[in-house]
Design goal:
Helices cover 47% and strands 14% of the residues. It contains 21 helices and 16 strands. Strand 9, helix 8 and strand 10 form a beta-alpha-beta unit. 42% of the residues are buried.
């Protein structure tokens, strides 16, 4: 296909990772956000969401010529809402071209005191910013940024920050979301990373891409080779990595692996000296992470737990959600690392809180996956179309990328792991134990756990969690 010339203000279809093409607009990035080095790309704000990213030119198509094609191949309520937002944007701006070319001084005056493309700015006290409108953040910024980018962007950001603070949330969104997939300033601290599984591999790749100095170690040493080629250094043991790095991250499979990594021969603890920092990103129980924190701190080290919510694809795309607890200063020191690997991070207080929250999140996800599989098999045995069931769900309140991807896995019989079934079963087991520890019933999770155990007995442990479907058909 011949190259298409794109420019600021163009409406486009942008593709990010394996997600379907999404409608957006090429805009100026915030002034403190630099373009990634070595990439020909544009900064795109996506309609119907608060997402924005640097997108490579080859992943962009002009909106109007490809509109019908994209509508035919993409389905789902969120996608349709995004297309509707584009059409609303076009209706609002139609016939306004003359207004947008008036002298700069008049433009500034209209933006700050009057109406631009149907929006009043600034909002009056009696007209609060409508955070509930899914199109608001993108739409308002895209209407004003070309005219007074500095003033309007700062004013809107400030207003949104106030709205965020008024919710009273004890969680803190620390990673600057404007830096996602963009250019960040890497910390000058030496970073270590232990564990190159499905999640760890994507995390390390993004740390390197964003310019961090990283030393890696993995139990299976050949997994390190790819990252050495990308510029990482090789550590011979966990103790060596910790002793030569300022902050060492670890992401392993379960509580036993997490303990062995710290307490075992040539383990993390042997490399800990006063001031050394250890960040455990494994999904484990609160007792395990508390024990590890105690032994690290007893040697003068600093400790942070930071399990992540996501899957292999989100890890590869640098779009994980990070749940952190422990040393608040260390959390802040990890800022550039968290920005490289995730879209959002939350600080949840004392050690153990992140482990508990992560188990609850995965309990909900695992139970939902089992219910999806149950529904698809019930549709099949009662003579209903599984594809039609998915189409119906995608048009309703349950519509989500997770639902669509996992159903597609089942319909296509493709269970390549994006999140291992054995690990979601482990998380369900730990969540049930968490409930038991406070005498809180978890009957839904317990029922789901039995289905996953059945799937494991059918040799599905190393498949994706969606392979729980096979527990219902055998």
């Amino acid at each position: 296909m011949a190259a298409v010339s794109l420019r600021l203000g163009d409406l486009v279809w942008g593709k990010l990772g394996r997600y379907p093409p999404w409608p957006g607009k090429i805009v100026n990035p915030p002034k403190d956000l630099k373009k990634p080095r070595g990439k020909k790309c544009f900064f795109v704000k996506f309609f119907g969401t608060e997402d924005h990213a640097w997108i490579k030119v080859e992943q962009l198509k002009p909106y109007h010529p490809h509109k019908e094609e994209m509508i035919k191949i993409n389905k789902g309520k969120r996608f349709q809402q995004a297309v509707d937002a584009v059409e609303e944007f076009l209706r609002k701006t139609k016939g306004k071209d003359q207004d947008l070319t008036i002298p700069e001084s008049s433009t500034v005056k209209r933006v700050m005191t009057g109406t631009v493309a149907g929006f009043k700015w600034p909002p009056s006290v009696s007209e609060p910013v409508k955070d509930s409108d899914p199109h608001f953040h993108h739409f308002l910024l895209s209407q004003t940024e070309k005219m007074v980018p500095a003033v309007c962007y700062q004013a809107i950001t400030k207003k949104l920050k106030v709205c965020e603070e008024e919710t009273g949330s004890t969680s803190i969104q620390a990673a600057d979301s404007t830096a996602v997939n963009g250019s960040i300033t890497p910390t000058d601290k030496k970073i270590g990373f232990l564990g190159l599984g499905l999640m760890g591999s994507g995390i390390v790749s993004n740390l390197l891409k964003m310019g961090h100095t990283v030393t890696v170690w993995n139990r299976t040493a050949e997994k390190c080779d790819l990252f050495i080629q990308e510029g990482a250094r090789l550590g011979r043991t966990p103790a060596e990595v910790v002793s030569t790095c300022d902050i060492t991250f670890a992401c392993v499979s379960d509580p036993k692996a997490a303990k062995d990594l710290v307490l075992g021969p040539s383990g993390v603890l042997q490399g800990i000296r006063p001031g050394k920092c250890y960040v455990d990103m494994s999904t484990v129980d609160a007792d395990t992470v508390t024990e590890l924190a105690q032994v690290i701190v007893s040697r003068g080290g600093r400790f942070l737990e930071a399990p992540v919510s996501g899957n292999q694809q989100l890890s590869n795309d640098g779009m994980l959600v990070i749940l952190a607890a422990g040393d608040r200063g260390l959390y802040e020191d990890c800022s550039s690392c968290f920005q490289a690997m995730g879209k959002t991070s939350f600080f949840l207080g004392e050690v153990g809180n992140a482990a508990k929250m992560m188990l609850i999140v995965n309990m909900v996800q695992g139970s939902f996956m089992a219910t999806i599989a149950e529904g698809l098999t019930l549709a099949q045995v009662t003579g209903q179309s599984q594809q039609t069931l998915l189409d119906i769900l995608n048009q309703g309140q349950l519509a989500s990328i997770f639902l669509d991807q996992k159903c597609q896995n089942i319909l296509q019989g493709n269970f390549k792991p994006d999140f291992y079934l054995k690990y979601i079963q482990k998380d369900l087991r730990l969540a049930i134990a968490l409930g038991d520890s406070v005498n809180h019933p978890t009957p839904m999770a317990a029922a789901a756990n039995e289905v996953y155990k059945r799937a494991k007995a059918l040799d599905q442990s190393d498949n994706d969690m969606s392979a729980v479907y096979r527990a219902y058909i055998h």
